[in-house]
Specification:
The complex is a heterodimer. By secondary structure, chain A is of the alpha+beta class. Helix content of chain A is 22%, strand content 35%. Chain A folds into two domains: 2-239, P-loop containing nucleotide triphosphate hydrolases (Rossmann fold), CATH 3.40.50; 247-376, Beta Barrel (OB fold (Dihydrolipoamide Acetyltransferase, E2P)), CATH 2.40.50. In chain A, the strands form four sheets. In chain A, strands 6-7-8-3-9-10 form a six-stranded mixed beta sheet, sandwiched between helices. Chain A has a six-stranded mixed beta sheet with strand order 13-12-11-15-21-14. Chain A has a five-stranded antiparallel beta sheet with strand order 16-20-17-18-19, with no helix packed on it. In chain A, α5 links the parallel β7 (165-169) and β8 (197-202). The radius of gyration of chain B is 24 Å and the shape is globular. Classes of the chains: A alpha+beta, B mainly alpha. Chains A and B meet through β6 and α4 of A and α8 and α9 of B. Bound molecules: adenosine-5'-triphosphate and magnesium ion. Magnesium ion is lined by residues 51-52 of chain A. Residues 22, 25, 27, 45, 47-53, 203 of chain A line the site of adenosine-5'-triphosphate.
Chain lengths: 378, 289
């Protein structure tokens, strides 16, 4: 958007039908993606789904077997890594052990020709170390730094080059939980401040959802769905995404009638559900096997059936199996004779119940038509 | 396990574990050295050997063997340097370029010649460099009058050949351990392959070069077979002087003084090596996390 001439937008990075094979293994399968300038995008997926491979093709460490990688609208398939205007933060940081912190950070500037004057290099190194709050650590050796500090050195070393795109391969995976939270916020702030496009690889859904403008959910080398975190949460295209992004209950069933966006589903365990929404791109015919996805927080519980809100999609009688205290919320694991186990999440001060449900207690559960999303059965 | 045993057994076990090594060092290193130092202040017995005395005569006499010291102190470093220059590309190829199967074969091939005695291998070079060897072939293409044996050049060739594996292996290990992601990081930051080599690969593998150099340097300092055979008595090392003094002229005290001086030079080079390696954080690898 910012780099567009006369209003036209050129994506900062684009994949055009990119496939990458390692022998038999297909690490990337027909990737189609456009990343806008200044965007914070994440690749999210389980181990081995091809996230790192996608990133490495942007960095220039791997060449696509088919398709094109574009940076600023120019095809860069054959451009070697050292000529690309992108920088990477490696998972294990890959800091140079024979150089001190300042020399590590200055490395990128020293590769330029003509080489910037000494005073400018010093000034920019100092500014970078300020940015990542590591002033005073200039002369430290890498092994004298903690994991979090090394992580920041790696960030500074990449950012000093003012890349068009910063690639981050699970940059926080090695940090403990508390430090990881702090660094997530720091990274997000940093990205807003420097305005550089960030592409983050992670298998931590919380991390992807909390930090990114947009998330690509990956599976077996392909992008299953891309969208804003809210999009993915509210409108997953299939069970895989619904399961990966947040928690979800799935009830198997068969389509009775379909009309508009909704459908009436006969559940395998008995009873019918009137679902208000259907996954994108899914066209339903009577008799199709489907899954009805319902988020735990959209299921309400009550001790008496008449205490439930009227006009629900379905009412289920169930027994509390387990109660998990989560601070401001309580998660219940319930079991229904007909539908099996499912989860609900209730705020601790619910209007319907004065005191929390006990394990073993019989309850009624209900969810609204809008909460029920029909997805493919697989 | 071992540590726990030491803990439990206390001092007895520690003594038992350290004992053999300590005895070894005492009997085979400290005692002989002490004897040599003692002898170096003595006098030559009339029939040769050692007669007790306390004199600095032998040390003041060192200058008479100045040429041997000079030769050794010049050629050992040059030989070490040449060795490193020849070994580095080979180690680099083995560690970085060669496929794993090739690599094992090549590593074995480097060791195989060492199954025969050094004397034989150096003798082979005498034939190669001798008048029926390389000079004869050079004559065939019109280059006449080249003499190779009994020159410093021949000695250098022998030294490099003889100690190459000792240089290759430490460098190979340091290159093999080099984290390949460092090279990617360097490329990512804008360095082309040549710059990456000079700025990352070489500096990170320098401790290996230092280790190999120390090994080779110390052995070259004590070398006497190579100069004797390929130098034909014209290129004279400290080692040759020692052989001469102890076995021919039987002037043990003077020989001892020469030996003590040589040990001091070696100690100085070990100290220099330690300082260099420690200044680079020793053999420490970059932590994985
Ligand atoms: N250099 C390579 N040679 C052969 N196969 C490879 C290579 N690099 C990756 N692969 C394979 O490609 C697939 C995708 O790997 P990739 O590293 O991109 O996964 P990932 O999503 O980053 O996983 P993780 O979360 O574990 O890092 C895997 O099956 C992997 O084994
Ligand atoms: Mg990965």
């Amino acid at each position: 958007m910012r780099n567009g001439q006369n209003g036209a937008t050129v994506p900062t990075v684009a994949f055009r039908n990119v496939t990458k094979r390692f022998g038999e293994v297909v690490a990337a399968n027909g990737l189609e993606l456009e990343i806008r300038s200044g965007e914070f995008l994440s690749f999210l997926g389980p181990s081995g789904c091809g996230k790192t491979t996608a990133l490495r093709m942007i960095a220039g460490f791997e060449q696509p077997s088919e398709g094109d990688v574009l940076i600023d609208g120019t095809r860069v398939n054959e451009l070697p890594a050292y000529r690309r205007p992108v920088n990477m933060v490696f998972q294990s940081y890959a800091l140079f052990p024979h150089l001190n912190v300042a020399r590590n950070v200055a490395y990128g500037l020293l590769q330029r020709s003509p080489r910037p004057p000494r005073t400018e290099i010093d000034r920019r190194v100092a500014a970078m170390l300020d940015l990542v709050q590591l002033r005073g650590f200039e002369n430290r050796r890498i092994w004298e730094m903690s994991g979090g500090q090394q992580q920041r050195v790696a960030l500074a070393r990449a950012l000093i080059n003012e890349p068009k795109v910063l690639l981050l391969d699970e940059p926080l995976a090695a940090l403990d939980r508390k430090l990881r939270r702090d660094m997530q916020i720091e990274l997000q702030n940093l990205q807003r401040r420097v305005g550089i496009t960030f592409i983050l690889v992670t298998h931590d859904q919380e991390e992807a959802l909390s930090m990114s403008d947009r998330v690509c959910i990956m599976r077996d080398g392909g992008i299953v769905q891309q969208g804003t975190p809210a999009d993915l949460y509210d409108r997953p295209v299939n069970r895989y995404v619904a399961d990966f992004v947040g928690k979800s209950n799935f009830f198997a069933g068969t389509v009775l009638t379909a009309r508009g966006g909704g459908a009436v589903i006969e559940l395998d365990g008995g009873g019918t559900v009137t679902a208000g929404r259907t996954g994108e791109g899914l066209s339903l015919l009577p008799g199709d096997a489907v899954s009805v996805a319902v988020r735990p927080e959209q299921i309400v519980l009550a001790r008496r059936e008449d205490a439930l809100p009227a006009g629900g999609a379905a009412t289920i009688s169930a027994r509390v199996q387990n109660r998990i205290f989560l601070g401001e919320h309580i998660e219940y694991l319930l079991r229904s004779e007909t539908l099996g186990e499912f989860l609900t999440l209730a705020p601790r001060r619910s209007e319907l119940t004065e005191r929390p449900f006990e394990a073993g207690e019989a309850v009624f559960a209900a969810f609204s038509t809008e909460a029920a999303l029909v997805l493919g059965s697989e | 396990m071992a540590a726990a045993a030491v803990e439990r057994g206390g001092k007895g076990v520690t003594a038992l574990l350290v004992g053999p090594a300590a005895t070894f060092f005492l009997l085979l290193l400290v005692l002989p050295l002490a004897v040599v130092v003692l002898y170096s202040f003595g006098e030559r017995a009339p029939a040769g050997g050692y007669a007790p005395a306390f004199t600095f005569e032998n040390y003041l006499n060192l200058a008479s063997r100045g040429q041997a010291f000079l030769n050794t102190l010049m050629m050992a470093p040059v030989g070490t340097l040449l060795c490193a220059v020849v070994a580095y590309p080979m180690a680099y190829y083995l560690a970085v370029k060669a496929s794993p199967r090739w690599r094992t074969l090549l590593l074995v091939l480097i060791i195989v010649p060492f199954w025969t005695s050094q004397l034989l291998r150096i003798y082979a070079w005498l034939l190669i460099l001798g008048s029926k060897g390389v000079p004869a072939y050079l004559e065939m293409i019109g280059i006449e009058g080249v003499r190779l044996v009994n020159t410093r050049f021949a000695v250098l060739v022998g030294m490099v050949y003889g100690y190459l594996p000792l240089m290759i292996f430490p460098i190979y290990v340091s290159l093999e351990r080099l984290d390949k992601r460092l090279l990617e990081a360097s490329a990512d930051l804008g360095a082309n392959p040549a710059r990456t080599f000079w700025q990352v690969t070489l500096p990170v593998s320098l401790p290996g070069v230092a280790t190999g150099s120390l090994l080779v340097f110390i052995l070259l300092m004590g070398e006497f077979i190579i100069p004797a055979l390929l130098g034909g008595g014209k290129v004279f090392f400290i080692g040759n002087a020692l052989v001469d003094l102890f076995l021919q002229s039987r002037n043990w005290p003077f020989g001892a003084a020469v030996a003590v001086s040589m040990v001091l030079v070696m100690l100085a080079s070990i100290v220099a090596y330690m300082r260099f390696v420690l200044s680079r954080g020793g053999m420490r690898q970059q932590p994985l996390v």
